[in-house]
Backbone:
């Protein structure tokens, strides 16, 4: 499995402009995208989610686990290790998320213009 890239979620990226939220907080969709290729450790998730504080990332992971979208596996041997992976329910979230990303990419210019207009008015 490929390592997650630090620029996976650049600030000027459709994922940050997407007005459609998935999950229980603003970071949930990004966490799910990080887990789409397989289980990851907390430290791996921190690489593309560097704008998220460890505390907030932990909260997001707990909420996603509570909602049945991810599963947390703790291993104690040979060393303590915790992995996060999508559940089948979490996997089923990927198709609607992809559709939302495609919609955002199609309407990228309109979304940018609307945000710029709003910032000028404020």
Residues:
């Amino acid at each position: 499995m490929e390592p997650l890239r630090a620029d996976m979620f650049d600030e000027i990226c459709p994922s940050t402009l997407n007005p459609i939220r998935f999950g229980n907080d603003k970071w949930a969709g990004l966490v799910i995208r990080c887990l789409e290729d397989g289980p990851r450790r907390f430290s791996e998730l921190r690489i593309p989610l560097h704008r998220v504080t460890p505390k907030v990332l932990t909260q997001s992971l707990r909420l996603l686990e509570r909602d049945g979208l991810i599963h947390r596996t703790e291993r104690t041997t040979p060393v303590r290790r915790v992995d996060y992976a999508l559940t089948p329910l979490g996997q089923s979230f990927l198709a609607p998320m992809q559709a939302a990303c495609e919609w955002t990419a199609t309407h990228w210019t309109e979304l940018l213009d609307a945000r710029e207009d709003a910032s000028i008015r404020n």
